[in-house]
Amino acid sequence: MTVGSPPRKPKKFIVTKEHKRFAEFANAVRRERYIGICYGPAGVGKTLSARRYSQWDKAEALLTGWGPRDPSDSLIYDALNRSRAVFYTPSVRAGLCEFRKEVLLMIGRVDICVAQAQPDHTTSITAKIKRYVELLIIDEAERLSAITLEYVRDLSDRTGIGLILIGMPGFEKRLSRYPQLYSRVGFAHHYRPLRSDELAFVLSNHWKKLGLHLDQTDFTDSQAIASVARITGGNFRLVQRLFVQINRIMKINQLTAITDEVVEAARSTLVIGAT
Ligand SMILES: Nc1ncnc2c1ncn2[C@@H]1O[C@H](COP(=O)(O)OP(=O)(O)O)[C@@H](O)[C@H]1O
Ligand SMILES: [Mg+2]
Fold it and tell me: Ligand 1 atom 1: the closest Cα is on which residue?
């Protein structure tokens, strides 16, 4: 099954200003039951924000495995009760049939989980499951064909579920070609790279991981930060890739400080694409 992204190694999630802006945007779409578009360059953190908002890292294994239950699952039901959201990543070239089947299955499963979290929950098999899901978030939405876009628009109309489509810049313009859908877009949210104060915070974590202390008032450190900012443009994924190389260079050369030269040497080993 291709529901959601493949499980990834849990990394420490940093609650950035961009993530908070995303959460406010998602709350608004969910409250107003609108269509919202979120766009931004690859690597800035769109997917992680959406997974975090929808509690998907906690719930994905249970929702896709759908096996025997464990008492600890009540924590997941509570988490889903708070988010009332489904996160879905269509596979490349997914057809409408597969998309429909998987999305409806996930909405149904999240409804069942949320029902379990209700105080008046009954275990009667005949009890009708209510619709609890309030938001469907579709990542990599540029993969959706015109007909699938039309289907989600209709689904959101019929069920009153808010819809967020996440894509790369330019994707929001493509959607303007579908007037039925576009006229229902209530919010467009531009997901931006890290700004300098937050980048410095993220970098201090990277410095720490290398056993170093970042001092912004130190000339060498501030120069190194400026180089990282220039090279990565505050793009989370590029920062991470750069630090893999910095780490390697530091080890090979037995260095004890991250200097401008180290950052430059790390950059030269990377193929940094346009972001
Ligand atoms: N809030 C965050 N906290 C920690 N790491 C993050 C955060 N956002 C992004 N990252 C890192 O950046 C990488 C790219 O993020 P991702 O959400 O996949 O970007 P996008 O979906 O915009 O292409 C992630 O794999 C993760 O390592
Ligand atoms: Mg992504």
Answer: 14
Output the pTM of the full model: 0.91
Identify the CATH homologous superfamily for domain 17-190.
Answer: P-loop containing nucleotide triphosphate hydrolases (3.40.50.300)
Question: Which residues are found with C-beta within 5 Å of the ion, ligand 2?
Answer: 47
Helix (H, G, I), strand (E, B) or coil at 125: coil
Contact 237 CB / ligand 1 (< 6 Å): yes
Kindly report, residue by residue over 50-70, the tens digit of the pLDDT. 999 999 999 999 999 999 999
Structure tokens at 44: 């800035």
Kindly give the distance from the C-alpha atom of residue 138 to the centroid of ligand 1, in angstroms, as a whole number.
16
- The residues spanned by each domain of the chain are 17-190, 196-268
Give residue 49 CA to ligand 1 midpoint distance, Å: 8
Going by alpha carbons, the residue nearest to atom 13 of ligand 1 is: 237
DSSP E strands in 162-225: the ranges are: 162-167, 185-190
Radius of gyration of the chain (CA): 21
Q: Is 43 in the pocket of ligand 1 (CB under 6 A)?
A: yes
Task: Give CA–CA dist 188/166, Å, rounded.
Answer: 10
Identical fold, 17-190 and 196-268: no
CATH 1.20.58 fits 196-268, yes or no: no
Q: What is the pLDDT of residues 101-125, one digit of tens each?
A: 999 999 999 999 999 999 877 666 6
Gap between the Cα atoms of 4 and 86, Å rounded: 9
